[in-house]
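So, who can interpret the following?
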Amino acid sequence: MALKATIFKATLAVADIGRGYYGTHALTLARHPSETDERMMARLLAFALHADPNLAFGRGLSTDDEPALALADATGAIATWIDVGLPDERALRRAAGRARGVVVYAYGGRAVDLWWARAGEALRRLPRLSVHAIAPASLAALAALVERTMDFTCTIEDGHVFLSGRHATVAVELSTLHASGGGARNA
């Protein structure tokens, strides 16, 4: 018998001062049985950083050829492909061919350094790709906020990101490994 996804509900209020974006989103996050709280919160953080009424979560870990999140344009084409974790170089190459911009939020501490050392040279050549690393302490603090029903406020200003939940506020530390145009978030 296949295990089913666990459903989490989140209300996310975003104040992105630099973009002039202010909005509240009612989100449903389906967590695959093999997905960790850290990965789910990395997806939520990515949503906050790119918040838009046309931004949607992908179908999940079981779908290889789909992003964690996608921002569609008015025609329904993928304007920004957003992935979390340490995606395969070939998958990112395919994504760069399908979207005007590709953004990766890498996490995993030392594994990020190893992944970037191995794939970074090839990934730097991809057009319209940006790669940001989420600090392990930030992601651990975000994972500690996980509840089945969550309320968050995210404030983004001058490269600083604060995500506040019911019990704590996390100052999210992001570092940019590579930045280019095309939907990139320079947080």
Remarks:
- The domain at 6-178 is CATH 3.10.640.10 (Restriction endonuclease-like alpha-beta roll fold).
- The chain has one domain: 6-178.
